[in-house]
Amino acid sequence: METDSTTENSPAAPLSEQHFQELAFATQRALPVRRAARVAAFNGWITAIIAALSLPFAVTGLIALLVAIGLGVVAFLEFRGRRQLLAFKPEGATLLGWNQAGFMTLIIAYCCWMLFSGATDLDAHPEYAQLLGAQGRELYRSLVVAFYSAVIVLTVIFQGGNSLYYFSRRKHVATYLEQTPKWVQDLQQANSGAMST
């Protein structure tokens, strides 16, 4: 009786059904972490673009220079935290959370400075104050206060929310590391590394 040579020479399947189930479960556990990495990529690119656009204004004064540097640091840390998340390192979530908290502080400090300088700008330029008149000066100051107050509120909501979101991803990274076999972690981290390059 002749046997089929292709059957004799075919290797056993490298992955069993249980292996595929482990991969599927690990993929589900990794989803919140990968979503956070996508958020970090978006935030990083937006901040980097704003930092690049602010560079020409850095020569106008110390405040503008500090803002440009601060934005650059925030963008750099956002990308660094993203890489750590893709490697399933819990410290990546912590770094991103504190980075957004620092970004929020930077924006609020800038707005407070603009509120102070906006209130004194007219005093430094009496010709503008005279041109606007009493009602114009009050309107100008009201608009400055309203604008920068709104920016502060939106910053607390957006950057503060981002910060809390990133901090909450740490538990998802920990769950993934605790419940995922090492071989699956190595495989998925290798794939994440390939996607991040």
Secondary-structure topology with pairs:
Elements: H1 5-9, H2 17-54, H3 62-86, H4 90-124, H5 126-179, H6 182-196
Helix pairs in contact: 2-3, 2-5, 3-4, 4-5
How many strands appear in the DSSP assignment? 0
Sheet-strand content, in percent, reads under 5%
Helix content: over 70%
Number of helices: 6
User: Regarding quaternary structure, how should these chains be classified?
Assistant: single chain
Which structural class should the secondary elements be placed in?
mainly alpha
Low-confidence runs: 1-12
What is the CA-atom radius of gyration, in angstroms? 26 Å
Write down the domain tally.
Answer: 1
Explain what the structure shows:
Keywords: Membrane, Transmembrane, Transmembrane helix. The chain crosses the membrane at residues 44-77, 98-119, 139-161. This protein is mainly α and 197 residues long. The protein has one domain. Helix content is 87%, strand content 0%. It is built from 6 helices and no strands. The protein has helices at residues 5-9, 17-54, 62-86, 90-124, 126-179, 182-196. Helix 2 runs antiparallel to helix 5 (126-179) and helix 3 (62-86) packs antiparallel against helix 4. It is elongated. Residues 1-12 have low confidence and may be disordered.
